[in-house]
């Protein structure tokens, strides 16, 4: 480990000790908000302290084993213990380096999933439906809940647009690298001559922020429209103007919600999503200004970037952000088995962050 990373680790260990003292301060305990924030930070630093303690024990074991090597009768045993201690130190060195990667506080939270058909007409809408089902199946395998908030079906299947809320611990951490343009190459079901077409759909992953209630929007900046819901739900849903569309005029962001029976409930859900989108957009602008060269723009919702190609004739899926990230199990991926992609993208993000930390940026 480089001296720069080692200094950062020691600084984190000192911060943990400081937090331990602060959490014992009656003044901090009396302030619920501050106590909660410091407790959360303390919990995040606990793994660092535990790994450093394990490293100290491994170093002590190594020193003890090296001391035994001078005894001819214990030399063989000493060599075994030295090898074990050295392997343990090497593993801990890697573990500590990964613990330095800043943890996104939004990782454990829920998210809004937006999938929209791009270029390609009916086939693009069908592909958008395939992508949505892929994410829904992945969510189901994780034990998460998927709640569709609004959808516009395509004329020949799929969706022109679908927006859903994904609820489950760690949802954002696993899906945050999915934002961007997804391209498909295949023979469409609507193609009569067997020609391969290229179509696209866009995906945006927007974290559901805990602090959206703190965001204050000027009512004058909002244009609120009501309309009749188009989905299933019985006579009440389809015959009353319970659906809500809110436009944030300064930014042009538009959100809709039509899943609830009452206009009030739909408005609440739409406002929550609008605030989450505006907050995410601001965070993305700040992140882009600080890290223009990053390959994985986490949570940016940037749908102009082509990130992945799904080639059905070859059964191939390629992520264009990571060199060599090509899998030949496209049917399984489309069926919701995203683990290999999720893990590789997460690893690449950690590598990027470690390189940035080592450079001291």
TrEMBL record:
Prokaryotic-type class I peptide chain release factors domain segment(s): 228-244
Modified-residue entries (N5-methylglutamine), positions: 235
Subcellular location: Cytoplasm
Gene3D superfamilies the record matches: 3.30.160.20, 3.30.70.1660, 6.10.140.1950
Function: Peptide chain release factor 1 directs the termination of translation in response to the peptide chain termination codons UAG and UAA.
Record's comment on post-translational modification: Methylated by PrmC. Methylation increases the termination efficiency of RF1.
Protein name: Peptide chain release factor 1
UniProt keyword list: Cytoplasm, Methylation, Protein biosynthesis
Organism: Stenotrophomonas mori
Family matches, as InterPro entries: PCRF (IPR005139), Pep_chain_release_fac_I (IPR000352), Pep_chain_release_fac_I_sf (IPR045853), Prokaryotic/Mito_RF (IPR050057), RF-1 (IPR004373)
Family: Belongs to the prokaryotic/mitochondrial release factor family.
HAMAP family the UniProt entry points to: Rel_fac_1 (MF_00093)
Pfam families documented for this protein: PCRF, RF-1
């Amino acid at each position: 480990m480089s001296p720069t990373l080692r200094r950062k680790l020691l600084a984190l260990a000192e911060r943990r000790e400081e937090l331990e003292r602060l959490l014992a301060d009656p003044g901090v305990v009396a302030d619920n908000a501050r106590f909660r924030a410091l407790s959360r930070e303390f919990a995040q630093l606990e793994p660092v302290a535990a790994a450093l303690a394990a490293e100290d024990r491994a170093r002590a074991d190594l020193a003890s084993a090296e001391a035994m090597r001078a005894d001819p009768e214990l030399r063989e045993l000493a060599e075994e213990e030295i090898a074990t201690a050295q392997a343990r130190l090497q593993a801990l060195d890697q573990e500590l380096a990964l613990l330095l990667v800043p943890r996104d506080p939004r990782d454990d939270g829920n998210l809004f999933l937006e999938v929209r058909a791009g270029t390609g007409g009916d086939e693009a809408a069908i592909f958008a439906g395939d992508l949505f089902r892929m994410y829904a199946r992945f969510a189901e395998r994780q034990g998460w809940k998927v709640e569709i908030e609004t959808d516009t079906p395509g004329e020949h299947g799929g969706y022109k647009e679908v927006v859903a809320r994904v609820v489950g611990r760690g949802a954002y951490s696993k899906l945050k690298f999915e934002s961007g343009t997804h391209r498909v190459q295949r023979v469409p079901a609507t193609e009569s001559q067997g020609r391969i077409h290229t179509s696209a759909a866009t995906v945006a992953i927007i974290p559901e922020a805990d602090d959206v209630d703190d965001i204050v929007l000027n009512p004058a900046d909002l244009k609120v429209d009501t309309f009749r819901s188009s989905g299933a739900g019985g006579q009440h849903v389809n015959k009353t103007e319970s659906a809500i569309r809110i436009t944030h005029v300064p930014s042009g962001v538009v959100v809709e919600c039509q899943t609830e029976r009452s206009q009030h409930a739909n408005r609440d859900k739409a406002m929550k999503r609008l605030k989450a989108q505006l907050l995410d957009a601001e965070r993305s602008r700040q992140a882009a200004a600080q890290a223009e060269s990053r390959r994985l723009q986490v949570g940016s919702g940037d749908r102009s970037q082509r990130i992945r190609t799904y080639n059905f004739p070859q059964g191939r899926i390629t992520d264009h952000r990571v060199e060599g990230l090509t899998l030949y199990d496209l049917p399984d991926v489309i069926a919701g088995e995203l683990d290999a992609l999720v893990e590789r993208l997460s690893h690449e993000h950690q590598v990027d962050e470690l390189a940035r930390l080592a450079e001291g940026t």
